[in-house]
């Protein structure tokens, strides 16, 4: 408590005493109000192991992420998750607020330790949905080539590039994509079905998926169209109809049994095709 004595040039001693008491009471009340305000403003966030809180990213590097967890406290990312940071760092920014879980209230360095596991599990799907809606490219790591196409990995999510969504030279030799990092555009993403379908062709040729959907909807089943031959595989012949890729199944090439679709067509040729079925999903 601060005491102030106010001296008056004129007046009685009683007046001097009253001013002293009034000033004392006012300062006392004012001090209480200021302290309450400061306590409310600087009240620290309760950091308890297992608790989920919203944290603000204040630093990102290859060595880890530093978070502001409130109350002037900083937290660091757990060592096991730092190994994964190179995959996620391009999609995080300083200032982002994300949900973290406290895994240690204090590490050997004196900082609380947090986990981004919930973000890794859910946030990456949110990123994919946003990228799809904005028709933005993503980088994926290619794996082996299988029946469905070239398998890819994005932040731990397994997806596929259908062979028809490749450009040369990968269209002819998709197995050579293994181990390569390529840019793609997202065609389909579904967390519930754990499904991710992307296109390397859409990225290379700057194809708009929304425009492609419009072209697809304009094509009618039961009509004959001119088609450009793009390539062949064990499944049949890949072709392009009105700017949309399609497949002539190997069973539809000839009345006779066909063992090698490539022997019936030449890449670049224009042929007449009859649209039997449309499948937006595939």
From TrEMBL:
The keyword Nucleotide-binding does not apply. The keyword DNA-binding does not apply. GO terms for biological process: translation. Coiled coil: none annotated. Residues 50-117, 147-201, 222-282 form the S1 motif domain. GO terms for molecular function: mRNA binding; structural constituent of ribosome. SUPFAM superfamilies: Nucleic acid-binding proteins (SSF50249). GO terms for cellular component: ribonucleoprotein complex; ribosome. SMART domains: S1. Keywords: Ribonucleoprotein, Ribosomal protein. InterPro entries: NA-bd_OB-fold, Ribos_protein_bS1-like, Ribosomal_protein_S1-like, S1_domain. PANTHER family: 30S RIBOSOMAL PROTEIN S1, SMALL RIBOSOMAL SUBUNIT PROTEIN BS1C. Belongs to the bacterial ribosomal protein bS1 family. This is S1 motif domain-containing protein. It comes from Candidatus Roizmanbacteria bacterium CG11_big_fil_rev_8_21_14_0_20_37_16.
